[in-house]
Specification:
With 207 residues, the chain is of the alpha/beta class. It has six helices and seven strands; from the N terminus they run E-E-E-H-E-H-H-E-H-H-H-E-E. It has a seven-stranded mixed beta sheet with strand order 3-2-1-4-5-7-6. The longest helix has 18 residues. It is globular and about 50 Å long. The two termini are 30 Å apart.
Length: 207
Amino acid sequence: MEYYMGISMSMASTVDTGVAVIDSFGKIIFLDKLYTMKDIQYFMDNYSSLSKSHVAISLPWDNSMLEGKWRILSKPYQMVRTNENLLNKDNWTQRYSTRGCEYFISLVEKGIDISRFELYLTRQKLSLSSYYKERTPADCKFLQNALKTEYQFEDLPPNMMPMSQLEAIVGALIVRERSRNPNNIKKIFEFCGIDVINIEEKIVTNF
């Protein structure tokens, strides 16, 4: 029996981190919310089937304090590698947070199968992206309905679930796709020594 674990990593301990585990039959067997890195470490260190699991962890946005509104707004879109004249004061051009990287690398060194994924790129490839603003109630409801109807997660409750748990299910889906169709998975870049993966060909559903 193999398991597929998705972790929607938050940028700070004040925001919940979602965890989802899917078994080989496509059933969700675990959903939870964690907060601090100690919570995440305790969960993974005590998860009995970790060695049999394929893990995908999302890349959280870096939320370090920035000076100036234009830097805050341009941070996700600045083409930093093509502009050598940028003044990288206080490392403001760093898009993703390195939170938990040292711990995840230590698990990889122990033989645990861990990959990273970019949440919104993965949602696009899985046909789970919506036209609503990210993480709004409408976006959350859309993602929950899409997972329930198109990916046969019929056990999802009718009431609105936490967005972090739904995003964790997205992570579990991409490692399940990698297990079933490895040729449809590509490495898009590397972050803190761990491969960031995405789907090669967009998965089209009937949604």
